[in-house]
């Protein structure tokens, strides 16, 4: 168990040497005006971490970093994060992904201020900005899901907001430890959406979910149609596994709003030629999502061809 601190950071890691984003993230986290006590890296497969860590001199450059290793078979979106939280005694836990890079030195301070302003806040998640090289469609998606205005969501907002009431993202989100432990951490096993399942439980326990637009990270992806199919298959599976969260609300309505908004955005920005390829990606996303929602009727061999998380099914 690590010594007590106000905020500790937990980051699942897999193949950190693919690019420099994790190093950039660690560098910015080290410069925060409100510093993290510890940064806990929950790494999958030790052999994939060791050479990178030695090459980048991680222990020397980032003395606040602690590493815990799990195997690919042990990794779980929920359980691995909860295991990381158990290594800490901090009052607040900041979960991030390894491809999210703080936009400035105020990330932790802004999230912590939101937590302190709203005493009933169980989780506060950050705004995601498009990273360098993001496509025009992906830029619109970031602004669609992460607007410049902060908000506070409670259970009473479910009728008005639908699925958005439970929306939160562990790409960068701070949790109040007391509530996190009270609600049992993240529900495991989880193939996806552990953050939204927790947010839903928090709302129904009488707590708030806060979106903090002042806390910002760079995070975006230019997924191929195939990658979107696999990702959305797992999304559909997660929704089918948690009917208590998703059965009473439709995500298709939000999907249609995103499609029409993106097409209009591409036309406004002179990128109309990108629309056919982007719409094909939408077809792939929706096909994957529908198959995932009905995974119980699929043969195991087909599931393994559709999923991004093959170890989850083993």
Give the CA-CA distance, first to last residue.
30 Å
Query: Which blocks of ≥5 consecutive residues have pLDDT under 50?
Result: none
CATH homology group of the largest domain: Spore Coat Polysaccharide Biosynthesis Protein SpsA, Chain A
CATH topology of the largest domain: Spore Coat Polysaccharide Biosynthesis Protein SpsA, Chain A
What's the order of the H and E elements? EHEHHEHEEHEHEHEHHEHHHHH
Please provide the count of β strands: 9
Q: Helix count? A: 14
Principal-axes geometry comes out as globular
Percent helix = 40-55%
Measured on Cα atoms, how large is the radius of gyration?
Answer: 19 Å
Structural class: alpha/beta
CATH class of the largest domain: Alpha Beta
Strand count, sense and closure of the main sheet?
A: 9 strands, mixed
Can you tell me the number of structural domains?
A: 2
Mean pLDDT: 93
Query: Roughly what fraction of the amino acids lie in strands?
Result: 15-25%
Named at the architecture level, the CATH assignment of the largest domain is Alpha-Beta Complex
């Amino acid at each position: 168990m690590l010594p007590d601190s106000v905020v500790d950071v937990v980051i699942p890691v897999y193949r950190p040497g693919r690019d420099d984003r994790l190093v950039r993230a660690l560098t910015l986290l080290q410069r925060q005006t409100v510093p993290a006590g510890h940064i806990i890296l929950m790494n999958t497969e030790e052999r994939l971490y060791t050479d990178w860590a030695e090459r980048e001199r991680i222990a020397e450059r980032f003395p606040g970093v602690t590493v815990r290793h799990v195997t690919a078979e042990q990794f779980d979106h929920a359980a691995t994060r909860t295991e990381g939280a158990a290594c800490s005694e901090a009052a607040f836990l900041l979960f991030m992904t390894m491809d999210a890079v703080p936009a400035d030195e105020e990330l932790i301070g802004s999230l912590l201020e939101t937590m302190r302003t709203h005493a009933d806040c169980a989780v506060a998640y950050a705004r995601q900005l498009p990273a360098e090289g993001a496509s025009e469609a992906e830029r619109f998606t970031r602004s669609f899901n992460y607007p410049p205005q902060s908000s506070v969501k409670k259970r009473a907002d479910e009728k008005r907001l639908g699925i958005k009431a439970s929306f939160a993202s562990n790409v960068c989100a701070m949790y109040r430890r007391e509530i996190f432990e009270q609600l049992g951490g993240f529900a495991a096993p989880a193939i996806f959406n552990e953050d939204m399942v927790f947010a839903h439980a928090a709302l129904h326990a009488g707590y708030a979910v806060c979106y903090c637009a002042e806390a910002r990270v760079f995070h975006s992806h230019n997924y191929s149609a195939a990658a979107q199919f696999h990702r959305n298959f797992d999304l559909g599976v997660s929704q089918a596994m948690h009917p208590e969260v998703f059965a009473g609300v439709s995500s298709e309505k939000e999907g249609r709003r995103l499609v029409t908004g993106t097409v209009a955005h591409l036309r406004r920005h002179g990128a109309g030629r990108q629309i056919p390829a982007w719409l094909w990606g939408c077809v792939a996303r929706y096909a994957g999502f529908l198959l995932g929602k009905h995974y119980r009727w699929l043969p195991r061999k087909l599931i393994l061809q559709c999923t991004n998380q093959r170890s989850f099914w083993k």
